[in-house]
Structure formats: C-alpha cells, structure tokens
Amino acid sequence: MRDDQGSLVTDSTGTVLTRSRPYVGVAPATEIRRVPLGELPGMVAQAVGGTLRAIATLPVGLYHVVAAGLGLEERSTTGVIGLVGLGRYAGQVSSTGVGEGTVPFAGRVSAMLSLLGSLNLALFAFNLVPLLPLDGGHVAGACWEGLRRRWAAVRGQPDPGPVDIARLLPVSQVVFALLVVMAVVLVWADLVAPVT
Predict the structure, then answer these.
(1) DSSP run (H or E) holding 174
(2) Can you tell me the distance from the alpha carbon of 61 to that of 57, in angstroms, rounded to the nearest whole number?
(3) Fewer CB within 10 A of the terminal residue: the chain, N end or C end?
C-alpha cells in the first residue's frame, strides 16, 4: 500500500518495505551494446589476466574470505567465491524480475554465458597449476622426463627411462587435502558472509 505521496510501500502488517527518497546525481542504468568482433581478443586477454591474477593471489584471497566469514572485514565483491556463491549469482542473474528497470532476456543470457565461460576459463587455468593431482603436475612430470632424455642424449648417455611420478604421492595427497579444505572454507564463507 502507498501513502498519500505514493512514496511508502508497506505489507499487510504495516511493515515498511520500501521508501522512495529524492536524490541528486546519476541513476544506474543497464544497456546492451554490441561491440565489434575486433574487441573480442582484448576482452579474452583481460579475462585470462584476471583469472591468472586470482590464481596467483589465491592464498591472500582465501585469507580475506576467512576474515569476512569471521566478521572481521567485509566480503569483497571481487574476491574468491565458491560453488554456493556462484550458484547464488547465477540465480540472481536468471531471476531478474519482469518490469521496469530489469535486465532484458538477451542481457541475462549474455551474463549467464559470460559466467559459464569465466568458470570454464578459471577451471582450465587452475587445473594447469604444476602440482599433482592436477593435470599441470602430470604435464610437469612429462616435461621433466623429456628434459632428462634430451640432456642424456646431448651428453651421449643412455636413456634414463621414465620418471616415477608415484614417488610424489605424498605431495599429491597434501595438495588434495588442501583443495578439499579450500572448497569447504569457500562453501562456509558463501553461507555465513555471502557476496552482496
């Protein structure tokens, strides 16, 4: 229900839900703008750079996530989020209501495709970190084996044979445990201190 000036909205119990107030300044607006195809490589490079920066600063980002979860600081909108936060964001994008000031359907589809692409890019880049059990650890082992064989060939020595990556199983177990702890921390932080 609205009051005499039409600026107050209440529910059936009389609780104030929204109140309009005058303001001076610029109101936010959304706009769908087509960009030339030539800008696509720059946008992809920017996304890759942001993903690599996020991976390089992951320990610091996790520290800030834990601090926000404990109530010591505000949760950053540009920080690390987990699957719960990602699902919440996808839900917000897809359920932007119908009516004035909402994002049109094409904009929501674009945002969801952008979210999906960013998630795939982040998983791809993170998986290439040269630690076992990630694929980057196996690639690093194969590269080390190739370097050993070439070095032996240059020196005229026999082939040293394959590298025994199984010897790095303790390292692999520690990395796996850290990944599980990171996932649990991110889910916890997304529940107690969601990104708003």
Answers:
(1) helix 169-192
(2) 6
(3) C
